[in-house]
Amino acid sequence: MTGEQAGDMRALIEQIAKALVDEPEQVAVEVVEEDGGTVLELKVAPSDVGKVIGKQGRTARAMRTLLGAASMKLHKRYSLEILE
Q1: Cβ(59)–Cβ(53) under 8 Å?
Q2: Which domain holds residue 69?
Q3: What is the percent of the chain where pLDDT is above 90?
Q4: Rounded to an integer, what distance in angstroms lies between the CA atom of residue 55 and that of residue 40?
Q5: What is the rounded average pLDDT for all residues in the chain?
Q6: pLDDT tens, residue by residue, 57-77
Q7: Strand, coil or helix: what is 25?
Q8: Cα–Cα separations (whole angstroms), residue 51 to 23, 33, 37
Q9: Are 20 and 52 in contact (CB under 8 A)?
Q10: pLDDT digits 0-9 by tens, 4-42
């Protein structure tokens, strides 16, 4: 896998999160390589955590679904962690 692909996934999650929150300047996504895959760690302002998780986790689940679909195309495992 190239660093460019991880950057694309990072940009995807970052853009989605920025569209959802009240403080887009506080959105940060870090790429962490782990055994068996890549973890994208999403950090937002404390007041925006609920917005990126959504009711009953629906928004977070949708973001993970998009990430999973893109992962299949790239033949690489990505996962999303929302940090509080």
Answers
A1: yes
A2: 3-83
A3: 75
A4: 21
A5: 92
A6: 999 999 999 999 988 888 888
A7: helix
A8: 11, 26, 26
A9: yes
A10: 777 889 999 999 999 999 999 999 999 999 888 899 999
Domain count, the chain: 1
Q: What is the pLDDT of residue 18?
A: 97
CA distance 81 to 43: 9
CATH number at residue 43: 3.30.300.20
Cα–Cα distance, 70 to 23 (Å, whole number): 26
> How far lies 70's CA from each of 1, 33, 53, 78, 84, in Å?
13, 17, 20, 9, 25
Residue type, 45: A
Read off the pTM. 0.89
Strand partners, 32: 39
Q: What strands lie across the sheet with 28-34, from one edge to the other?
A: 28-34, 37-43, 78-83
